Amino acid sequence: MKKRYMWLMISAALALTVVVGSTLAYLIASSNRVENTFTIGDVGISLTETTGSDYKLVPGAAVKKDPTVTVKAKSEACWVFVKVTPSTDLDSFCVYSIADGWTPLEGESGVYYRKVEAASTDTPFAVLKNNQVTVKDSLTEEQLNAVAVKPTLKVTAYAIQSDGMANAKTAWQTLNS
Q1: Would you kindly state where each structural domain of the chain is located, as residue ranges?
Q2: pLDDT tens track for 31-60
Q3: pLDDT tens, position by position, 117-154
């Protein structure tokens, strides 16, 4: 009887082990592996001009000047800025306008901006309206000869991602900090 009782206990223990082991097998699970790859976004721009850098001032003439900011393909959405800096005497000789699509940045003289969405191709933006500067009709040779330094117009382009930037002012301040 003791042997039978012992075999019964061993059988019960073995059955309990199988039941518990099976239950544990049902409670254990695994998932597929998830792999995340992080890349760094990019904002690429260029500033080009095909019309050269030296111009003859003829009264009343429209002088071709085509500074163009190009947001490069695969750039992230971004704020694009241009800073247009005329020499102190340029307005005595010439007039120009900023091309459509640029907005003056409040509180910043000569700074204009636009928001550009991510692009799959290069996207150019003219800086000057009609790609020109117009020489004033009233310009005289004496005026030009009286100037020690010839008038200039300097254009500089900047860009920064738009993600994380609440507005153009914040983006400009971040660029200049």
Answers
A1: 1-30, 45-175
A2: 788 787 666 668 999 999 999 888 888 899
A3: 998 999 999 999 999 999 999 988 888 788 778 889 99
Q: What is the amino acid identity at position 36?
A: N
C-alpha span between 150 and 56 (Å, rounded): 11
Which pTM does this prediction carry? 0.77
Contact 116, 43 (CB under 8 A): no
CA distances from 101 to 70, 116, 129, 159, 169 (A): 14, 11, 10, 16, 17
* Residue 157 near residue 82 (C-beta atoms within 8 A): yes
Q: Contact 49/67 with Cβ under 8 angstroms?
A: yes
pLDDT in tens, 65-77: 999 999 999 999 9
Please state, in angstroms and rounded to a whole number, the distance separating the CA atoms of residues 122 and 45.
9
Domain 45-175, classified CATH 2.60.120, yes or no: no
Q: Which two tokens stand for residue 21?
A: 């082991």
